[in-house]
Design a protein that fits this description.
Length: 375
């Protein structure tokens, strides 16, 4: 049996996976069923997790240690674990496509995101990469996120708050174009790292060059080979950077069961390309690499075929965005208003104050209101 809920404090605002000890009311718990299916629930005294086969009371989970196995009313066993950040970003509400964990890990590693760094991120999308960057920079760092669309920023704000329990003080979201907003936000040479996840990052390189400190690093995340070629050539033409280094990451799992050892039939293949380059000191002329002659010339007509309009940008419907924003804000409100250990308050109760919200620099507040459920 679980421990009495009255003896347990509410879950702290440190984010799932970052807290040790027994499960608390208000925490999110990931349940793995007998067939490997995952379900994530928010613990609430007196509530129950229902399937078509049986019922598992939340009170049976509250007070149990992370990694416990519990039995539902029909005899099915469920493994209970706090979700990792990897689990959360793959299941959170989305307004825009996310940066997948395999690419986020490469960004943190190859951009050398370190505790205390000042990092600029554009665009913010649904907030997945923001969570990884916030974890990497620590409490002493600073993350400045820029997003052109207010509805995307609202989804990201809700998702980050839902995971961390509160809006971090060292994070800000500015709604606007990076090329225009960045010079007004930071001093020249004051940024350590810049992460560009956008359709046409080459359009922002002048502003990025001014913001980066000498030796600072820019990393671009692009989806297609035409975008990859365009941004690499733009970096070279600017004269502000070291030789760009493009790459991609592929992940292939393996099936290991006794002597049956083989690659999985499915793998996580291409999701995007990453390009890194370091900021040169002002006035520095980069020595040219000695290479064999090759066909590297291209005409203006070739470049025109690679513009953002020609590449095409797939829009997300307003209906889907509104739904994602509501779901993200719903998760955020649950984390902001966690019930006490006595279970005498409702985590679903509507809050009158907006404590913990990230102020959107040009939006004046969140673009979403609270409604719906994601359980």
């Amino acid at each position: 049996m679980s421990e009495p809920t009255a003896d347990l404090p509410a879950a702290p605002g440190t984010g799932p996976g970052a807290f040790r000890g027994p499960f608390r009311p208000g925490e999110r718990v990931q349940l793995t069923g007998p067939k490997g299916r995952l379900n994530t629930i928010t613990l609430k005294p007196g509530a129950s997790f229902h399937t078509h086969r049986g019922v598992l009371a939340h009170d049976e989970l509250i007070g149990r240690d992370d990694g416990s196995v519990l039995t539902a009313s029909n005899g099915d066993e469920y493994l209970a674990l706090r979700p990792l950040l990897n689990d959360f970003v793959m299941s959170m509400p989305r307004g825009a496509a996310i940066v997948y964990p395999k690419d986020a890990a490469q960004i943190v590693a190859f951009a050398d995101i370190f505790p205390g760094a000042t990092v600029v991120e554009a665009g913010v999308g649904s907030g997945a990469l923001s969570l990884w960057l916030l974890r990497a920079i620590g409490n002493e760092g600073r993350l400045l996120s820029f997003e052109r669309r207010e509805d995307f920023a609202a989804v990201a704000e809700g998702n980050v708050t839902a995971f961390m329990g509160e809006a971090p003080d060292n994070w800000s979201i500015t709604v606007g174009d990076l090329a225009e907003a960045l010079p007004a936000t930071v001093s020249p040479g004051s940024v350590d790292r810049v992460v560009l996840d956008m359709l046409a990052p080459w359009e922002c390189l002048d502003a990025v060059s001014d913001a980066l400190a000498p030796g600072g690093l820019v990393i671009c995340y692009v989806a297609t080979v035409t975008q990859l070629s365009r941004v690499v050539e733009a970096m070279r033409a600017s004269g502000d950077y070291t030789h760009p280094e493009p790459f991609e990451t592929l992940i292939r799992g393996w099936h290991v069961e006794g002597l049956a050892v083989r690659p999985d039939h499915r793998m996580v293949g291409h999701t995007g390309f990453l390009v890194t380059a370091r900021r040169l000191a002002p006035g520095t002329v980069l020595p040219q690499l000695k290479r064999r002659a090759s066909k590297t010339e291209f005409s203006e007509e070739d470049v025109e075929l690679w513009t953002p309009g020609a590449l095409g940008e797939r829009d997300v419907s307003d209906k889907r965005l509104r739904k994602a924003a509501r779901e993200a804000q719903r998760l955020a409100e649950r984390r902001r208003h966690i019930p006490s250990g006595e279970g005498d308050s409702d985590p679903d109760a509507e809050a009158e104050s907006g404590g913990g919200h990230i102020p959107l620099a040009t939006a004046g507040g969140s673009a979403a209101d609270e409604t719906g459920t994601v359980e």
